[in-house]
Write a structure and sequence with these properties.
Elements (H helix, E strand, L loop, with lengths): L1 H25 L31 H17 L2 H26 L1
């Protein structure tokens, strides 16, 4: 039980790190004010590290693993259904994002 909780926490931290990596791509480092969040150039970059070397959308990968562990922790059939539907949706988003990376 404690091992599953630790595994869930690791997956969530990796998911957070992936979101930070993706969020930093949108920032324009030349601007230091509140408008620095949006990069006006709309430059597309390909992320690396923390799972991005193995899959295109590591944030969805870690999120899916987190939900799988959560379902194993709760052992509730509705949790399994939610996890399955979430993984199907994230797989769809990942495929779309991967196609954009290829362009």
């Amino acid at each position: 039980m404690i091992g599953l909780v630790a595994l869930w926490a690791i997956f969530e931290l990796l998911n957070y790190k992936c979101h930070k990596i993706l969020g930093d791509f949108r920032r324009n480092p030349k601007q230091k004010d509140d408008k620095s969040y949006t990069n006006q150039a709309k430059e597309r970059k390909i992320p690396f590290g923390f799972g991005f070397d193995q899959v295109s959308c590591a944030n969805y990968f870690w999120e899916a693993l987190g939900w799988i562990v959560y379902s194993l922790l709760t052992r509730n059939y509705t949790s399994y259904i939610f996890t399955l539907l979430s993984i199907v949706q994230m797989a769809k988003w990942a495929k779309e994002k991967h196609n954009r990376y290829l362009k």
